[in-house]
Amino acid sequence: MMQAYLDHAATTPMRPESLAAMVPYLTEHFGNPSGSHSVARRALVAIDEARDEVARCLGCEPGEVVFTSGGTESDNLAVLGASSPGPGTVLCSAVEHHAVLNACDARGGTTVPVDRSGVIDLDAMGEQLDDRVDLVSVMLVNNEVGTVQPLADVAALVRALAPRARLHTDAVAAVGWMDVAALTTVADLVSVSAHKFGGPKGVGALVVRGGSRLDPVLHGGAQERGRRPGTHDVAGIVGMAAALRVATDARDDTVRRVGTRRDRLAAGLSTSIEDVRETVVHGAAKVASSCHLVVGGVDQEELLVLLDDEGVCASAGAACASGAIEPSHVLLAMGLSPVDAKSAVRFSLGYATTDDEIDHVLSVMPKVVERLRA
Hints:
It is a single chain. The chain is of the alpha/beta class. The protein has 2 domains: about 130 residues, Aspartate Aminotransferase, domain 1 (Alpha-Beta Complex), CATH 3.90.1150; about 230 residues, Type I PLP-dependent aspartate aminotransferase-like (Major domain) (Aspartate Aminotransferase, domain 2), CATH 3.40.640. It contains 13 helices and 12 strands. A 7-stranded mixed beta sheet has the order 2-8-7-6-5-3-4, with helices on both faces. Strands 9-10-12 form a 3-stranded antiparallel beta sheet. Strand 3, helix 4 and strand 4 form a beta-alpha-beta unit. The longest helix has 22 residues. The protein is globular and about 65 Å long.
C-alpha cells in the first residue's frame, strides 16, 4: 500500500548527511568529551566543530550555544532559567507549545491572547508589560497551524515597556522554513530541536545571547559552562549540526518545492470536499509546510484512523494521558468552537514529501470523508 507521511511537524526523517556524521561517534570514536586523554579530546573536538556549525546557522557566537536534549528542555531551561517565581514575571502567547505554557504556569506567569489566525495581540501584550516582567516567550512559528509571529514587533514592545525582560522564542517549528538566524537576532534566547529538521531525536540547543541571565535547572557537572550539566551526546550533537547545515543551505529550494505541494494539497481538498476550510485565514503569514484544515461534519479521531488505514499519516490536537484527543488549546485560543476544533486535521509536509504522496491524499481523503459523513 502507498504510504503518505504528512506528519513532519511531529518528526521528520533523518537526513542521510546527519546519519553519516553520527556513525563514527556511535562506534570507534566513543569518548566522553569531558575527559583529558586523546580519545576524549577527539570527542571534544567534534563537539566544538558542531558548536561552530550550529552557531553559524543560528546567527550567534559558538559560546552562546547550549546543547540540550531537545525542544522541551530548551524551552524549560529558557523560561525557568531566565525568570523569577511570582505573578507577572513571565508572559507568553496563548498558543505556545506546552513546554513553554507549563513552564510559564510553574512560574505563575500569564498568557497573551491571539487573533483568529493565531497571531499575538500586541495591544494586549503591551498592557501586561511592566518593570516586573523577567521573561517574555513568543514562538517564531506555531507548531500546529504554522502561523508566523511578528517577533520584531514583539521585541520592540518588550524593550520599550519591560526593559529588564529577556525575550525567548521557540523556533523549533521554524528551522528549515525561515531564516532563523536573521529573524531571531532580536531574541535573547532561542530554542531548536534536531528531529524537526532531519537530525536525531533527543538532542537540541538553546541560544543564550551574551549577557542573558540563565540559571541551570539541572545540577551536576560543569558542562556547557555550567548552564546544562551532563555527559554530552556526542553523536547526537554531531548529527544535529550536520542536519542543520543541510536544512539551512537548502532552505530556499525546500520552501519552493514544499510550498507548491502544500498549495496543491490545500486547494485540491478544498475543492473536492464540501465544507473544508483552512484554519489560518487567507493572507496570514505561515510557513510553507503547514496545511491545517477544518473538515466539517467529521470527528478528527475517526478521520485519522481511517486515513491511517488508507496509508495516510496525519495528526490532530494534543493527546491527554488517556490517549484521547482533546480540543487543541491553539485552536480554542484562535476562537474556533470546540466542535470545529474536534474536526481539525494537520497535514504537515517536509523536505522529503513527494508529489506521489500528495496525489495519494487527494485520492483517498474525499472517500474517507464521505464515508464518515454517511
